[in-house]
Amino acid sequence: MKKPFLILSLGIMIIALRANNIAVTNVSLTDQSILFNHCNVKFDLSWDNSWRASGVPGNWDAAWVFVKYRVAGGEWHHASLDTAAGNHTPAAGSQITPSSDFKGVFIYRSSNGAGSNAWTNVKLRWKYGRDGVPDDASLEVKVFAIEMVLIPQGNFYIGDGNGTSESQYAFHDYNADNTAQLIDNFSHGIKVDASSTYDDNYIKWTSPGNYALEVEGDNGIATNGPDPQQNNHDYPTGYTAFYIMKYETSQEQYMDFLNLLTRAQQVNRVETNISIGTTSITNRYVMTASTTVWGRNGIRCDATIPSSAPVTFYCDITSSDGYNQSDDGQNIVCNYISWPDMAAYSDWAGLRPMTELEYEKAGRGPNAAVYGEFAWGTTNLCSSAYSLTNANTASEGLGNTGTNTGNAIWGNTFSIPARCGSIAASSTNHTRQEAGASYYGVMELTGNLREIIVCLGNIAGRSFTGLHGNGALNLSGFADVDYWPGINGNTQTFTENTIYGGSTGVTESAGQGLRGGDYGVSTSSALTLSARGSACVNYSARQASYGIRLVHSVE
After folding, report:
1. What is the tens place of the pLDDT at every residue in 202-234?
2. Are residues 208 and 277 both part of a single domain?
3. Contact 131/125 with Cβ under 8 angstroms?
4. Which helix (H) or strand (E) element contains residue 363?
5. Rounded to 10 degrees, what is the CA torsion of 526, 531, 533, 539?
6. Given the DSSP bridges, would you call strands 187-191 and 172-173 parallel, antiparallel or unpaired?
7. Are 191 and 198 in contact (CB under 8 A)?
8. Residue 241 and residue 526: Cα distance in Å, rounded?
9. Same domain, 119 and 160
10. What pTM, to 2 d.p., does this model score?
11. For residue 371, which of 162, 168, 203, 263 is within the disulfide window of CB 3.0 to 4.6 Å?
């Protein structure tokens, strides 16, 4: 006779950006069907500053919700959630849309409105039989929720050329230099001006004047040059709908991720040496391998750790009154991130990296391009120093932010990273530019930390097909999704004149890049929405100014 689950404990995991107080509480397992090997994961979900609007910008925010479990204290695994929306139970006023790969669901308002969400008794059907979990297993379950914003399908511009000028290396129409290119569901050639010196940010061919790439809405990228490997494939262009994280990843989010990995996986996701067999730690601030806090990153471990079991990490930016206290910086953006860190977190969460075209779409929306514009759609930018209030807490804010101008965390205003959403919480009039918000309500696409993107300027980047993470990492803690940059042969080298007409023997990057500028940038032009000066950088090491922002395609 089969027995029902024996629940040892139900972990309540809040993977949250407390700027909007997203929280998962009251988690339980209910409604087990031994016959069909499924049950419901029941919980309450809430967050502030939510919306759904049929008018401008015609979108909504949502929570990407996924579940992790372990059996009898073993390793953590990703739970398979039913792909049929009707098998989940939304709370009144909400709607649930599952992903087709069993990895999670989107929960959002079912009708227009704005304000706080407080949804009780949400039920997600977990197909535990699909995960090989016995009917009578002793389980621990953790529920995660990440705030996302819907970017609807539709036309948008790449590049910000006004016919005369454009941002550095910006995209433009192949027929009209310094002219922004409309992306719709028809084919368009794009290019970046050729140069006698090779640079990945240029997209050029042997014959100057020929366009390098062809963009066709939901069909992706094709090439019009000597690049036969890349014709007619589906690099995400931004035309079709996708969700994007409302904020960059917080330190608490990354800490929670680390704490669900095996020891062998943790070793490669931090900078401090915590290799198996190590039991004594001096550089306890693990993202910077330092004895004290650097760059406001407060993720640390104990001085004594297990020999081979997973390490427990904490947020402890104050280092004086215990860890994970209310002033320990949990909500500060998580910096000192590398591409492999970002990719691993993305794979583990069932999300994916964003492309540089999606970055511009998320910022500009359907509006016409403005030369030199920032993510809030104007060229206005505050350059006066901000002050800090309620430092390191969930209510950390920025004082002296500008009114009737654009606000961003950059070298002239606040030269250290700040709490996720701190600009919006501190602005006086809450206009889009004062809050530093994009057309669709995405925060801090300009400044704070740089956005790690999949570049369009080389083969490794263009081989990206937009597959989502599967919720699991390889044994060493790396992402293993086909055709993500740096994975399955995408760390490439080749002779440049074979492809581009540049110099011979130049090594190619792995397809990663950066957009949006950061807290250390002192030149405002580097912050503009279309600037591509770092669009194809190849830094594999952790950097103080790099963060994580992920997306998920709408299916």
Report:
1. 454 434 444 456 777 777 776 554 444 444 467
2. no
3. no
4. helix 356-364
5. 90
6. antiparallel
7. no
8. 27
9. no
10. 0.92
11. 162
